[in-house]
Amino acid sequence: MPDTPPLDLSSDVRDLTAALVDVESVSGGEKPLADMIEAALAPLPHLSVVRDGDAVVARTGGGRAERVVIAGHIDTVPVAGNLPSRVEDGLLYGCGTSDMKSGVAVALKLAAALERPSRDVSYVFYECEEVDASRNGLGRLSRTRPELLAGDFAVLMEPTGGEIEGGCQGTLRAEIATTGRRAHSARSWLGVNAIHAVAPVLDRLNSYRPREPVVDGLAYREGLNAVGITGGVAGNVVPDACVVTVNYRFAPDRSLDEAQDHIRELFDGYAVRFTDGAPGARPGLTHPVAAAFAEMIGGEPRAKLGWTDVSLFSRLGVPAVNYGPGDPHVAHQQGEYVELEKIVACERRMLRWLGTGA
Asked: Which of 154, 157, 160 shows the shortest CA–CA distance to 313?
C-alpha cells in the first residue's frame, strides 16, 4: 500500500485508531495491516517480534515474575460503505472502530511506550477472528507456536464498553434437515413438500425459551435462532429436501458436547448435522491476577454475551478476560463507532496497570 503512511506509534491513541481503521482489513485481507504493524514494532529494542502468517507477536523479556498476554484481532467484517473513518460529536465512525481496532490501537500504544513494564507482556495481533474457527490466527498459534501465548493472564481487547466482561458463550451451528418426494407442482398431491415440512422446526424455535443461568456470579443469556434456510429445485417442482440452519449460543456451564446433546434432543425425529462449534469459557475472575486486574479497572464485571478467544486461552490454561473501549452493541453495524474518550480511558488504565503494577 504505497500511498498509506506508516503507523506512528507516538501519535495520540485516537489518531492511531483512525489510521488503523482506514487500512481495510476484511478477514483474509489482513496482510497490508499486518505488514504495517510488524514494521512499526520491529525497530523497538525492548521487543522481540515474530511474524507467523498474518499474525504479529511482540514480547518483552525483562525477566519479570509474571507474564501477561494482550491480544487483539486485526480483521473486520466486510466493509459496508463505512470507510474511510470520520469523527463526529466525539465519536469515531468506521468499519472496525469498535470491533476492534480501537483495542488494537491501545495495545500498540502500550507496546511502544512501556519499555520496562511491571509484568512481562506478549502483545498478539492476529488475523481471521471474524470467520470460521479453522482460519483463526490465534488458534493456529496455539497449535504451532503455543510458547508465544504462554502467560499467567490474558486480556482480549474485545469491545466491552470499557467494562470487564468475563468468560464467553459457546457457539454451535447445526443443520436440521427435512425430506420429501419430488413431483410436478401441477400435480403436487403426488409429492411431499420438504419445505412445508419445516413448519414444526420453526414452531419449536418460536416456542423455545432460552436459559439465563448464573455462572460464577455472572448472568448469561442463551439464544437459539434460525440463521438460514435452503430448499427448492425449480419454480415448477415440489422440493424433496430442505435444511434449516440454527445457531445456538450457550452459557459456559455447558460443554460443547452437552450443547450438541441439547440440540439433538430438541429436534428429536429430524436429521441433525453439526457444521461448526466452539466451547465457551467460565469467567475465571477468582484467579488472583484476574481479580487484581478487575479491582484496578473498577466497575461491575458482567458476562460476555458472545464467543471470543477467551475460550482458546481457557483451553490453554491461561485465565483471561475481555476488556476494550469499543461498544459491543454497535459491532458489525454499518454505523459502527467508538467513543473517543473511552479509547483514552482504556489506554490510561492499561498504562497504570502495566506501568506501576497496580
From this structure: 154
Q: How many residues does the chain have?
A: 358
Summary mean pLDDT of the chain: 95
**Alpha-helical segments (H) within the chain:** 13-21, 31-41, 102-113, 137-144, 199-207, 256-266, 288-297, 310-315, 340-356
What one-character-per-residue DSSP string does 155-176 give?
A: EE----TTS-EESB-EEEEEEE
Close Cβ partners of 329 (under 8 Å, ≥ 6 residues apart) = none
Is residue 183 predicted with pLDDT exceeding 80? Answer: yes
Q: pLDDT grade, residue 357 (50/70/90)? A: low
3-state DSSP assignment of residue 127: coil
3-state class (DSSP) for residue 250:
strand
How many CA atoms, within 13 angstroms, populate the side-chain half-sphere of residue 59?
Answer: 17
Which cell goes with 291? 481479580
Exposed, middle or buried by CB within 10 Å (0-12, 13-18, 19+), for 269? exposed
129 given a catalytic annotation: yes
Active site (annotated) includes residue 75: yes
Q: Is the pTM of this model over 0.85?
A: yes
* Given 30, 38, 54, 75, the catalytic residue: 75
Measure Cα distances from 284 to 21, 288, 289, 322 in Å.
32, 10, 10, 11
In this structure, what C-alpha cell is assigned to residue 66? 509474571
Say how far apart CA 281 and CA 263 lie, in whole Å: 20
Q: Quote the DSSP letter at residue 49.
A: E
C-alpha cell at 45: 529494542
- From 99, 120, 129, 339, active-site residue: 129
- Buried-exposed string 305-335: b where 16+ CB fall within 10 A, e elsewhere: bbbbbbbbbbeeebbbbbbbbbbbebbeeee
Angle of the 102-113 helix axis to the 13-21 helix axis, nearest 10: 130
